[in-house]
Write a structure and sequence with these properties.
Layout: E1 2-7, E2 9-10, E3 13-14, H1 23-28, E4 32-37, E5 50-53, H2 63-75, E6 80-81, H3 84-91, H4 95-101, E7 109-110, H5 120-127, E8 131-136, E9 146-149, H6 153-166, E10 169-173, E11 182-188, E12 191-199, E13 214-217, H7 223-240, E14 246-254, E15 257-264, H8 275-289
């Protein structure tokens, strides 16, 4: 079986660093895998039995092309992991609103309409927020994500308006818990695998390593955390109608309750830091394909 691992290009070559540990265990299951750049016009996707979506970390910069790529693979009847319907649902952060409607705790969020004249000062005053985070509803890795405050909202209005003209946005209350850390619980084939604790660097807004954050593989995790994260994923699976091969549930803790920051089903870093973790992921892929 031939598997394409979809990634993005860096310095003209497929990026392999985060998922190269999959190649050997997949081969043991009879799956020959190779990395292919997702937006390479010369790629022949019909030559593969399936496509595993991984580090396509620039898809949010060209969402229209990304949708066309999904349509191309659908027309070629090439199975995708995760499935295309799941990717479409997850690429727009309005999925958070849908999950919240089904009882999943999320941060207090305001969703400006496309042509709405939104006053940051008015929003913060209305909801009683001291600080807020602005982010596009289609984004990744902190792109065009920034914070404002009661004292700075008026000065930040022009910046907000300029971004809102280009992109649909969301405004979330800033969660101070992010300073002490965000938990990323990883699931393969719907089963819990491992947890990463991510802490921000000097800029307390971002936990990503490219922004100075740090990540640690936890040796022990409270059962209540795993149960709550699994429930979040279960709610999403019921909405979408299928179980993802890979999923990352990003949460913060608020008095024992996990609050969902992001449910990553497209291109999350899965932290394949040990052979055992890589084997679990490979087993989930093989179980789905063979």
């Amino acid at each position: 079986m031939q598997l394409a691992i979809a990634t993005f290009a860096i310095n003209g070559a497929p990026f392999k660093e985060t998922d190269s540990s999959l190649i050997a265990p997949l081969k043991q299951s009879g799956i020959e895998a190779e990395f292919v750049v997702w937006d390479d016009a010369a790629a022949d996707w019909s030559g593969y039995d399936a496509v595993l979506v991984r580090s396509i970390w620039n898809y949010h910069e060209k969402p229209t092309q990304f949708i066309k790529w999904l349509e191309l693979l659908e027309s070629a009847s090439v199975p995708m992991l995760n499935p295309t319907a799941m990717l479409r649902w997850n690429m727009n952060k309005r999925y958070l609103r849908e999950l919240a409607a089904h009882g999943v705790p999320i941060l207090p969020t305001y969703w400006p309409l496309e042509n709405e004249s939104t006053s940051l000062v008015a929003i913060l005053q209305k909801y009683g927020w001291q600080d807020a985070v602005i982010k596009p509803i289609i984004s990744a890795s902190g792109t065009d994500t920034w914070s404002t405050s009661v004292s700075g909202a008026a000065a930040d209005q022009e910046r907000f308006d300029a971004l809102h003209q280009r992109k649909a946005l969301m405004i979330q209350q800033f969660a101070p818990q992010i300073i002490t850390g965000e938990y990323s619980l990883v699931f393969f084939g719907g089963r819990y695998s491992h947890t990463i604790l991510k802490k921000p660097g000097k800029n307390a807004l971002f936990v990503q390593e490219e922004h100075g954050g740090s990540s640690t593989l936890l040796s022990t995790v409270p059962d209540a955390f795993i149960e709550q994260a699994a429930n979040i994923l279960h709610v999403a699976c019921n909405i979408i109608g299928t179980i993802p091969i890979y999923a990352r549930v990003d949460v913060i803790e608020d008095a024992g309750t996990l609050v969902l920051m992001e449910l990553e089903l497209i291109e999350p870093e899965l932290y394949l830091l040990t052979d055992e973790i890589s084997q679990r992921f490979a087993n989930a892929i093989a179980a789905d394909l063979t």
